Amino acid sequence: MNESNDIAISVRNLTKMFGAFIAVDHISFDVKRGEIFGFLGANGAGKTTAMRMLCGLSYPTSGDGFVAGCDINTQAEGIKRRIGYMSQKFSLYGDLTVMENLRLFATVYGMSDKKISEVSTDLFKNLEMENMRDTLVKDIPVGWRQKLAFATATIHSPEIVFLDEPTGGVDPITRRRFWELIYKASSDGMTVFVTTHYLDEAEYCNRVSIMVDGRISALDTPQTLKKKYNATTMDEVFRIVAKDAKRGD
Amino acid sequence: MINPRILKALLRKEVALMRRNPIIPKIVLLMPVMVMLVIPLVANLDVKSVNVAVVDNDRSQLSCRVISDMEHSDILTIMSVSGSHNEAMQYVENGTADVLLTIPVNYEKQVSDGDAAIDIEANGVNAIKGMLGARYVSQSVMETLVSWQRENGILIRYPESSVINRYNPTLNFRNYMIPALMVVLLIIICGFLPALNLVSEKESGTIEAMNVTPVSRLTFVLSKLIPFWIIALLVVTVGMIVGRLVYGLAPVGSIGAIYLATILFGLVMSGLGVLIANRSSTMLQSIFVMFAFIMIFQLMSGLFTPIRSMPQWAQYFTYAIPPRYFIEIIRSVYLKGTTIIELWQQYAALAGFATAILLLAALTYKKQS
Amino acid sequence: MPTLISLIKKESLHIVRDKRTMLITLLMPLVLLLLFGFAISTEVNDVRIVAVVDRHTDTTREILEKFSANDYFTFQGLVSADDVETLLRTGKTDVALLLRNQNGPLEYQIVVDASNTTSAKAMTGYIEAVLNSGRAAAAPAVLTHTLYNPQMKSAYNFVPGIMGMIFILICAIMTSVSIVREKETGTMDLLLVSPIKPRTIILGKLVPYFLLSCIILAVMLLIAYTVLGLPFSTGVVNVVFISLLYIVLSLSIGLLVSTIVNTQLTALIVSAVAFMLPVIMLSGMIFPIDNMPVVLQWVSCIIPARWYIEAMRKLMIQQLDIEFVFQEIAILLSMTTVLLTLSVKKFSSAQ
After folding, report:
1. I need a surface site. Which of B300, B314, C105, C157 has the fewest CB within 10 A?
2. How far apart are CA A122 and CA C247, in angstroms?
3. Are residues B312 and B353 in the same domain?
4. Which residues of A touch B13 (CB under 8 A)?
5. Residue environment code for A49-68, b if the CB has 16+ CB neighbours within 10 A, otherwise e
6. Which tens digits make up the pLDDT trace of C41-67?
7. Which of B208, B223, B367, B369 to mutate to test the interface with A (most CBs of A within 10 A)?
8. Alpha-carbon separation of residue C88 from A248, B201, B349 (angstroms)
9. Quick check: B300 and C121 CB within 8 A?
10. Residue at B160 is within a domain
11. Which of A59, A96, A109 is the closest to B369 by Cβ?
12. Is C156 strand, coil or helix?
């Protein structure tokens, strides 16, 4: 097992079964520190299940792995202190204001009140959300909510941030802005692990893996993959790799 | 295990969410008021009016006196006096008469001879009314008989007896129900709301966001329970105020004793709510499971019917029912002024249940599936 | 037709898969009937009594002897007059009998814990009966019988009440919540935009719950007529007929709620606050209606359970013929018609 300093995530033969159904089937990969790692696959391919295991939300059926230096089988709570997570389902409290949500999660991650007010001031400025501080989250537009969810997931500067379909249901311009946030976080040294089924987004990642029916069928930089499959876009790559998929739509 | 800063932040969130919920504040404030205002008027097992159908086969002075004495009582109303049992039965069958009194032929003469029997038949469709109604009628008949016998020199003097009704001298059933209603409110509010609260976080997905943070299970579960202490205290306070203002009933014992028991019991009920929510995946499921608990709690805790009237096996079973202890405490303190020290066993039992349920709730709460 | 059958199948699967809820809906009526039948009683059958005697005489000994020998009493012994208050306050005894003969002739004083007024009345009644039992006056003069419900078993009386409550619970709450959940998750929209007629969707929702209620009705009647020993007669046909009517009525209430509210939480609270509480409190199930203030008696008239329970009492307990419940049937029938029309209209216009 490679635990050297420049590896953020490392898994070997990670498997999750629900009854007889193998949701994730012996996957192995490494993610380097500071990398933007794209996790591609059709709906039902097992992306979310795999990610939930990495975040300590779900017990692996078998296999080993280390996330931010913690064992995923035994140190789930240790992982949770070192990561941020933004789920596919919007999961901020709709009846709390923007600031209340931020403060809640920042406190839970152990930040002091002073640190929270410093960070949040910068954050609102960067997100251009200063006027929304005291608005209830359920009343702000969807695109802003997504940015807020990202900000909440990264407010405590985690080593790794996990983003599960962060741009689902958002228009292309907002998606573009969102990716700017991801780049910014990455340039600050944060490792970004992102699942998506927008294949154009795959181009923005340093490396991508493509999951088909619970297995990783391809893993490399977008350029190498395109060359290997003799394709011009990631979309084509995906179509070739996933053509035998039995699950998903 | 418990980080006070995180707990405080979580509590602030719970309070803000509750305040902004469109229904919950209304329930917490209006339901106690409504229940305390309406139910004491309804929850009345006292029988204040009993309708009697009389079959008078004697038509003597004594039988007329029996009937007229009944007519003069506040409770009894004579619906009909007839000569045939069948005719009187019709009043019972269509529900206009609760008790049927048959005075036999030659009754007056038999009484003089010391060998007489009068027949009382109670309509058992409503068991309590039938039972009490029959008792009122028989009491009235007895009184008539005693004074009639005395006037005619048949009866000798006997010792005077007097009854002192302690703790509820006016025998007002309401005084017995009002403390119990607060228990009903606490069972419903502190049982259902935490369960609904947690399951709705599950359904909306916000619980996932919490589970992926390093917050400890005990801290999180406490943040779900503590708000209901406050709500429980609020409910009991509203209940006591309405009880005092509307029904003139104030606790005889110390309010502190009531609050202490309320905190312990609030913890038991809300802990149970969280426990059930932990094991439920949908709101309907959590509600039905909770509903089953609540039904059994209300029926078997001595709330409406005395525990000591139950068969032995059922009495043993009630020891496992937390509200049993709370009801004993709240009724004793409210009506009799019993102290915490005198009730230490009940307090200890509640504290034991509270600790056990809190631990179970924390242990069954899973951050990882 | 095939669409309807597939909808019914889908909904039935949904009900059956939620094993815990299913178990509770089937077990709860059973448990309630058995508890009411065998555990719960208002009868006072064990009075704990202590005695205070100023000066022992043959008469006082004889009196205490009578209490020790009587099955209804647990004689806890002699205590000093000063302890009576504490014993009563801590609930260690129910009654203290003071036999006063210090100054002159014997006098009885009965000090009773009257916090529960019903029990207190019964207890003083028993004690007076024991004290008077030696007297020539009126001992055998009064014979009391109970009609219809000979052992005064409250189980009989509660069977109609429990049925009235259970059907509201299952039909109204389960249907409204299950429809509203589909609204919340958006699957209802899918159905509504499809070419399926609203009528079919409604039937697809209601039929499974109707069937479930029928199973529960069968279970409850079985228990009532066997274990609880309710006398069986051909009148059961009428009981079933009116119960089915009441089930349809409850289903329409559930449907109506689902057209008005948008979240499961509200559906639950509306059903619980607007239906469960009134059914338990105002239908005459536990507390007699004629003891209520007049205004609440009027309110109770609009509660369907009141009429159902009344009809069931007449049919099951009094064993009367169906012509005695025509009024109740007419009221239930018109309530059903109004509610069903209203809810179907609202549901169909919602799309």
Report:
1. C105
2. 61
3. yes
4. 93, 96, 100, 104
5. bbbbbbbbbbebeebebbbb
6. 777 788 999 999 988 888 888 889 888
7. B208
8. 73, 48, 21
9. no
10. no
11. A59
12. helix
Q: Which tokens in the block code for residue B67?
A: 């009937």
The answer to whether A62 touches A13, Cβ cutoff 8 Å, is: yes
The pTM score is 0.84
Interface contact flag, B6 A107, Cβ < 8 Å: yes
- Name the most confidently modeled range: A40-49, B166-175, C87-96: C87-96
Neighbours of B152 (CB within 10 A): 11
Q: Quick one: fold of C47-141?
A: D-Maltodextrin-Binding Protein; domain 2 (3.40.190)
The closest of B295, B100, B259 to B187, measured between CA atoms, is B295
Task: Determine whether the interchain pair B125/C116 forms a contact, defined as Cβ–Cβ distance below 8 Å.
Answer: no
Chains B and A touch (3+ CB pairs under 8 A): yes
How many structural domains does chain B have? 2
- The amino acid sitting at B337 is G
**CB of B118 closer than 8 Å to CB of B101:** yes
| A40 within 8 A of A211, measured Cβ to Cβ | yes
Q: Give the tens place of pLDDT for each residue, A45-67.
A: 888 899 999 999 999 999 999 99
Which residues in chain B touch residue C174, judged by CB atoms under 8 angstroms apart?
Answer: 284
DSSP 3-state of A6: coil
pLDDT digits (tens, 9 = 90+) for B263-299: 999 999 999 999 999 988 888 888 889 988 988 998 8
Q: Check: CB of residue C265 under 8 Å from CB of residue B200.
A: yes
Which strands sit side by side in the sheet containing A7-18, from one edge to the other? Answer: A21-32, A7-18, A62-67, A70-71
ipTM of this complex prediction, to 2 decimal places: 0.85
Touching C (3+ Cβ pairs <8 A), the chains are: B
| Residue A38 CB neighbour total at 10 angstroms | 24
Query: What does the block give as tokens for C74?
Result: 């647990």
B near C: at least 3 beta-carbon pairs less than 8 Å apart: yes
Average pLDDT over residues B105-113: 80
User: Number of C-alpha atoms within 13 angstroms, CB side, residue B211?
Assistant: 21
* Whether B13 contacts chain A with CB within 8 A: yes
For every residue of B251-278, DSSP letters joined together read -SS-HHHHHHHHHHHHHHHHHHHHHHHH
CB atoms within 10 A of CB C159: 26
Asked if B368 lies within 8 A of A109 by C-beta distance, the reply is: no
- In this structure, the number of other CB atoms found within 10 A of the CB of residue B74 comes to 7
Report d(CA B332, CA C115) in Å as an integer: 8
Same domain flag for B37 and B79: no
Tell me the C-alpha to C-alpha distance, in Å, between residue B114 and each of B109, B117, B144: 9, 10, 15
Q: Directed axis angle between helix B255-278 and helix B344-364, to 10°?
A: 30
DSSP A214: T
Helix (H, G, I), strand (E, B) or coil at A193: strand
